[in-house]
Amino acid sequence: MSWLKHHIYCLKLKTTKSIIKSLFIFIALFSTAFAQQNTFESANKAYENENYTTAVEQYEQLLKEGYHSENLYYNLGNAYFKTGELGKSILYLEKAQKLAPRNKDIHHNLRFAYARTADNIEPLPHLFFVNWWFSLLNFFSASKWAVFGISLLWFSLILWGLFTFFKVKKIKLGSQLFLSLSLVLLFLAYQKNNYDKESNSAIILQKAVNTKSSPNHNAQELGTIHEGLKVSVQDSVDNWYKNKTQDKTRRGVKKGSISTYIVFVLFESLGGCLKFSVFIA
Question: Are 234 and 250 in contact (CB under 8 A)?
Fold first, then answer.
């Protein structure tokens, strides 16, 4: 009997410790989120007061602390535009557009920033079905495709459960339809996630960069590219990047001249789980 009381006491003690630990974790997370929200609002206030350098510093601090959202990228891109750093402005507006591909304000500001770049390079046209595929893929972010797909999957399971009780053929057909649609949407989420993660796009950050035909100083010069140009990184050798512009011209530039952008996505994989960032807006 005394052993049983001791066992119950130990269980209560472990439960109490777990509750206290969880409480401390919750308080720490809440305090961090509250502090980050204050920083975000302070940065927005600095932007409104035309203190753009201060706004940039505070937005960058949020990124260093692991907070990512289209609003943060969008505001940071706008702040960099105001400070005259066109390359970084385009970089963060591109990141914002990856997370919110249908946002008209982001799209407008990004086009306006690209119009200010020195290099007027027209991308080569794609076949119509390639354009159609990328338009569909970029219609939503990977996380939204995933949420829609999982929602339809749940509807399919609910309808299948109802069918097992009522044996109504229309319910079964509805369940199969939702299942098919959910698989299509999850496939789009998977493809969009891979496209974002494997993107080798980059933005030139220096004011001007001399390009070479091969990775050495004595190679033939192919001209100069400028801040804000979007390129596709093909390969790297020592201190050089092999890149391709949107007109498919291959050039070599020294490392440090460009910044690749890896977009934080909410949906990681079909096998893994959904990962959410803290949205500060």
Answer: yes
